[in-house]
Prior knowledge:
The protein is mainly α. It has helices at 2-58, 62-127. The chain has one domain. It is built from two helices and no strands. The radius of gyration is 28 Å and the shape is rod-shaped.
Amino acid sequence: MTQQINxxxxxxxxxxxxxxxxxxxxxxxxxxxVAELQLQALEEQTKVSAEFVAEAMETRDxxxxxxxxxxxxxxxRENAERAVSVSQEVLAITQKTAESLSALVQEQRQAANDAVxxxxxxxxxxxx
Length: 128
């Protein structure tokens, strides 16, 4: 009897740790993708801003300032669009990760149900 309980506890613990490892792995993959997207966006914004600042330093007349003003407003719009795009991608990655975690929970729940019903079915079969 004690051996059966130990075996069931060991099986449950193994299943739990496997599921926890899978969940942790899924979460880290999602986090890695999000960080990569954000770093790419930051790199692009830094590059474009540095080019803008370099051009601003070279401006010497009013026509250059007018062109710089137009370019600055265009740059602001592009940065805002890029930020929205990255946010949408981050949201999509987060949603996909949440769906994967939900599927993992469903697997865990089904495995737990099977683990509970299998001994009951075996006991019923043995009683007949």
